[in-house]
Specification:
Blueprint lengths: L2 E5 H9 L2 E5 L2 E4 L1 E6 L6 H10 L5 E4 L3 H14 L5 E6 L3 H4 L2 H10 L3 E7 L33 E5 L4 H13 L7 E7 L6 E5 L6 E4 L7 H13 L3 E5 L1 H5 L3 H11 L3 E3 L14 E4 L6 H9 L2 E5 L5 H4 L11 E6 L2 H4 L5 E4 L2 H11 L10 H16 L19 H11 L5 H11 L5 E4 L4 H8 L8 E3 L8 H12 L5 E6 H6 L3 H7 L5 E6 L4 H9 L21 H8 L2 E5 L2 H13 L4 E6 L25 H14 L6
């Protein structure tokens, strides 16, 4: 056996350079690069190795461990999970900062490779800097917190352990049914230890990602259910996007006259202009999609997890008459809602079903077009919402008095409505631009209002709804789409939570655009507490003397080196967007908007939340009674 003597860190980087994937006849490297923040746990091992020979890996310096991991997640998601970035951090706080990002990747089933340093394998210098001590076990380290939020997790305490660990990690990351974060914690002393590795371990390794075909039994069962249905409904999830099933979805929908609805992850798998696309479904769904869902007697899930938002907490469908067919590469997901499961690739399954359904047609007739026309009229109205200082009639959200709304208008120096701003952006940026969002009221507005006319240009992290993902993720978008304009649509609360990788984007001349919606508070949660009978409590950004906080975010971005703009009208926003397109550097548009000017829920958009059963507030009592009423119609599994 021929061997090569390498340190653990050298073996790691050499292995990463030799990992390829093969998808639909194409073969390419799987690991694009590695983000780093060096500390004493990884700088002398992985750091020295990358300095000497990174191979083809692109190496970027991050600014926050969570932030750079979010960048890697967004990159992998935008690349439809065909490529990844690895992340290296020091031990202790550096490792702990990965927990939120790992959970985000796990919830969204996105492959990334996390390489946090660990404490000493020898335990002789213990406790080293940044190492805590647990009385129950000396073996417990910060990295144990990553176990429940990783699809695969391992700790390397000897150099030769790396071989089996890496093979397992890549098997998991390249499996469409299990894809998620792989975490390999390497003891910091072991990173520099050497071993005589078998040279064959470093030969080119190809991971074949083959499309799983449905069985004849699965196809016949699904086809029989569809033929018996009168009003079937397609629910397009993220799996449809990863399967690149656009053409198959359109063909199926057109041939059998079946309406198409979208989850957040599935939006832009098919463009908004497609005649049968009724838009977002569920709690943040359109009026058209939710009406179709309530009438459906068969729901065909295409690569969706059927989260509470998509199903309106299992109250959206008429469970007395509706049946489900779930097409998903994950057996676990295919079983959701007691469905008939088809454990297979979305694209191949739809293609195989078409000839089996020859002669079938739904009974929708012209109803799909009428539902869409009704919604487009409502969408147009939402794009023209204005604020009246004399008479506040909440066109969208209520709760605040005229006095409070006027106070916000004065403090933020704006009368701009959030929905009007969003539709202005949608109409002004280039159609092939890619937008990203994650948390707050903006995802709901986007799922209802945003028209993505080019496939895979709508990027929402809503599996975990992680505040702080947006700006970091936009850098990931730019790495995946270097020739397109990319935009973070982010609220002020999320921006304050984490925007460190804006500096990284500026540092490496990767132009991103940040569209910051400032309503001085956590507006989404403020709506929630007031919708369910509470007051406005600690969700507005107010000073100690109860003044509304006014932050000049444009000045913050200018300090970093970005081109920035301040806008509060349609005309100012359009001008800023057009000028931002011409810039070569990153930009930030500080958009002052009024609270309570986001979309409200439409029919079928109820959300099951933990409302207090006992309260002296009448509004909370009413909210609890409504919950009990809704639960009688909800599916219980």
């Amino acid at each position: 056996m021929e061997t090569i003597r390498l340190t653990t860190a050298q073996a790691l980087i050499k292995f990463l350079n030799q990992q390829y994937v093969h998808i639909d006849g194409e073969e390419f490297p799987f690991v694009e690069g590695i983000f780093n923040i060096f500390g004493h746990g990884n700088v002398l091992g992985i750091g020295h190795t990358l300095e000497q020979d990174p191979g083809h890996l692109k190496v970027y310096q991050g600014k926050n461990e969570q932030g750079m991991a979010h960048t890697a997640i967004a990159y992998s998601k935008q690349m439809l999970r065909k490529k990844i970035y690895a992340i290296t951090t020091s031990s202790g706080p550096g490792s702990a900062n990965l927990v939120t990002a790992a959970a985000t990747a796990l919830a969204n089933q996105i492959p990334i490779l996390l390489l946090p340093a660990d404490t000493y394998a020898t335990r002789q210098p213990d406790p080293v800097l940044q190492q805590f001590e647990q009385e129950q076990s000396i073996a417990i380290t910060t990295n144990d917190a990553l176990q429940p939020v990783s699809r695969y997790w391992d700790r390397i305490t000897r150099p030769e352990q790396l071989m089996s660990s890496l093979i397992r990690a890549f098997e998991v990351m390249t499996d469409p049914a299990k894809a998620g974060p792989a975490t390999i914690c390497i003891s910091q002393d072991v990173e520099g230890e050497a071993f005589d590795y078998d040279v064959r371990f470093f030969e080119k390794r190809v991971h074949y990602i083959d499309r799983k075909l449905p069985s004849e039994r699965e196809l016949k069962g699904a086809a029989d259910l569809i033929k018996k249905s009168k009003r079937p409904l397609l629910v397009v999830g993220g799996g449809a996007k990863y399967s690149e099933a656009r053409e198959a979805l359109i063909a199926f929908s057109e041939t059998f006259n079946v309406p198409l609805t979208e989850t957040q992850a599935g939006k832009s798998a098919v463009e908004a202009s497609f005649k049968n696309n009724l838009g977002g479904l569920g709690i943040t769904g359109t009026l058209a999609a939710n009406k179709a869902a309530q009438q459906a007697d068969l729901v065909i899930g295409i690569g969706t997890r059927f989260t509470d938002f998509a199903t309106s907490s299992k109250t959206l469908f008429d469970f007395e008459k509706v049946k489900f067919v779930n097409i998903n590469v994950s057996r676990m997901q295919a079983y959701k809602l007691d469905a008939f499961p088809v454990v297979a690739d979305a694209k191949r399954t739809l293609e195989a079903l078409v000839p089996m359904l020859e002669g079938y047609k739904s009974e929708y007739g012209d109803d799909i077009g009428q539902l869409k026309a009704e919604w487009l009229k409502e969408r147009e109205r939402l794009g023209k919402v204005t604020f009246d200082r004399e008479r506040f009639e909440p066109e969208i959200k209520g709760h605040f008095t005229q006095e409070v709304m006027n106070e916000y208008a004065d403090a933020l120096q704006t009368e701009f409505a959030q929905t009007t701003a969003l539709l202005t952006i949608n109409e002004t940026i280039d159609p092939d631009s890619v937008i990203i969002c994650a948390a707050g009221s903006l995802p709901g507005d986007l799922q209802r209002l945003w028209h993505a006319e080019v496939p895979n240009t709508y990027h929402l992290e809503y599996g975990y709804s992680c505040m702080g993902y947006e700006v970091s993720g936009t850098l990931g978008l730019k790495l995946a789409e270097p020739n397109k304009e990319v935009y973070a649509i982010v609220g002020d609360g999320s921006f304050l939570m984490l925007h460190s990788e804006l500096v990284t984007a500026i540092q490496y001349h990767k132009k991103i655009n940040v569209l910051l919606f400032d309503n001085s508070g956590y507006g989404c949660i403020n709506n929630l507490q007031m919708d369910f009978g509470g007051g406005s409590y600690f969700c507005e950004f107010r000073t100690a003397d109860e003044k509304i906080l006014h932050v000049d975010y444009a000045k913050v971005a200018e300090g970093y080196g970005a081109k920035s703009y301040r806008v509060s009208t349609v005309e100012e926003l359009k001008a800023a967007l057009e000028d931002a397109k011409k810039q070569e550097c990153s930009t930030l548009i500080d958009i002052k908007v009024l609270p309570k000017t986001m979309t409200d829920g439409y029919d079928g958009s109820w959300w099951n939340l933990g409302v207090s059963e006992v309260s002296d507030r009448e509004g909370i009592q009413q909210a609890y009674e409504l919950k009990q009423e809704k639960l009688t119609r909800a599916k219980q599994y």
